[in-house]
Amino acid sequence: MYKEMISDSMWNEIKDIIPSKNVKIGRPEWDNKKTLEGIFLIIKTGMQWKYLPKEFGKVSTVHGKFRKWVKMGVFDNIMQKAKISYAQSLDKPMTWFASDTAHSKAPLANNWSGKNPTDRGKRGVKRSIIVDIKGAPLSIYTGPSNKHDISFFEKTFEKFCFEKTEIARIMEVDAAYDCKQTKLFCKKYNFVLLAATNIRRNKKKKKYHSHFRWIVERTFSWQSWFRGIKICWTKTEESFVAFLQLVSSVQLFKLGGIFV
Q1: What's this model's pTM, rounded to 2 decimal places?
Q2: 69 vs 100: CA distance, rounded Å
Q3: How many domains are there within the chain?
Q4: Is 244 part of any domain?
């Protein structure tokens, strides 16, 4: 017997987002909470679908529901709910953020991965995130490993879903983002870009190094505890994004005091 994968407190927050069977014709629908727990176990362990324990349901049922929910945008809706819940738990508005990318090996993602320059050209994918001062994953985006970090930043920011405000906010990034293009993009949304100095672009510039960028690295470390994230075993990008969205949602609920 596996311990409860999804707590009742989290399930109560998201159960209305999960589509249920409306008609009584045919077989009774398998428990959606058990299905979600089975999906979470796949992400946690990185196991193949065919080895999913029977207590979570038939493999064909669980995997079928997962693919159906992916296409319906269920996991995206869960993450949006988690973000709202987390934001409501804060005493002060969020003013500090950080963004970065991390690589995941992707031996099966032939159609959307790329040759990882940091892993001897093996197939890999990048996951780009934006976090706040607590390390809450507020936005995610994925793509092939052989694309530059800057090409991910604007797409990740677009999924950030934060409107313009009079309050100046900070975005901490590493030296890969130290360019005029990224600074101008952030300025449009009243963000101050604090990028580590890229000495290859300007050797005379005064050097700047953030003292808080470990926060985004810690979030990547949290994600890497999930073997289905550390190594991308999915064949499609939308499935991997759904995995990231569910993991991020759990972390947001935890930080918001719900997943306890």
Answers
A1: 0.92
A2: 28
A3: 1
A4: no
- pLDDT digits (tens), the chain, 260 positions: 566 778 899 999 999 999 987 766 667 778 999 999 999 999 999 999 999 999 999 999 999 999 999 999 999 999 999 999 999 999 988 899 999 999 999 999 989 999 998 888 899 999 999 999 999 999 999 999 999 999 999 999 988 866 656 677 999 999 889 888 999 999 888 899 999 888 776 666 677 777 788 999 999 999 999 999 999 999 999 999 999 999 999 999 999 988 65
Q: CATH code at 150? A: 3.30.420
> What is the crossing angle of helices 59-72 and 74-88, to 10°?
70
**Does some domain include residue 2?**
no
CA 203 to mean position of chain CA atoms: 35
44 falls within a domain: no
Range of the domain at 147: 92-233
Query: Do strands 137-144 and 169-173 pair parallel, antiparallel, or not at all (unpaired)?
Result: unpaired
Q: At which residue do the structure tokens 């100095």 appear? A: 197
